[in-house]
Amino acid sequence: MPTVALIDYGSGNLASAAKALARAANGKFDIVTTADPEVVKDAERVVLPGVGAFADCMRGLSAVPGMIEALREKVVKEGAPFLGICVGMQLLATVGVEFGRHAGLGWIAGEVVKITPSDPGLKIPHMGWNELTILQKHPLLKGIAPGSHAYFVHSFELKPALPEDLIATTDYGGPLTAMVGNENIAGTQFHPEKSQATGLKLLENFLSWRP
Q1: What pLDDT digit, counting tens, does each position of 66-84 carry?
Q2: How crowded is the C-beta side of 177, counted as CA atoms within 13 Å?
Q3: Is 86 assigned a catalytic role?
Q4: Catalytic residue among 126, 138, 191, 204, which?
Q5: Residue ranges covered by each domain of the chain
Q6: Is the peptide bond before 81 cis (omega within 30 degrees of 0)?
Q7: Is 193 a catalytic residue?
Q8: Pick the catalytic residue: 98, 111, 157, 193?
Q9: N or C, fewer C-beta in 10 Å, the chain?
């Protein structure tokens, strides 16, 4: 049975992500929560969750021996389907500016910056259900209607340098990045595992995606 590697580096909502992936997989994939680079190398596809500060998550990922190298080999060189969730998506960026400037994985050109809503009355973090504005078609959004609701919790956003890497936004005192993508790499700022029908559909699409 093909494997989905859910990366455990001490910073992620692993239990609910694993449960949602298992539900979406419907017995067709083995969902393996792992900190083992060898498991990543043998997986068919990879999911990188993340909760907390960019620098802490990047530090945690870097602290797992061989993990970044295994991810680079599997995702960048071999082209395995990849999904980053929340801070797992933000780590795709070139750099994050939370608590100083910190290098990211550099797979999606751009910076992770603090959300600055045009309305000062809007609270940070941006938290709760919000509508998706789909800017361009993507296999992961197949069957998901524009205006579908997804669940967000974040104070920072990834601003892609290239417009073609921005797949969807949401509005919170101005547009915020909701989804990015480039070839076999995709990332959502929202949490599919907490986004009910919309999230489950996205995960099902991810599991059938052949980039």
Answers
A1: 999 999 999 999 999 999 9
A2: 33
A3: yes
A4: 191
A5: 3-208
A6: no
A7: yes
A8: 193
A9: N
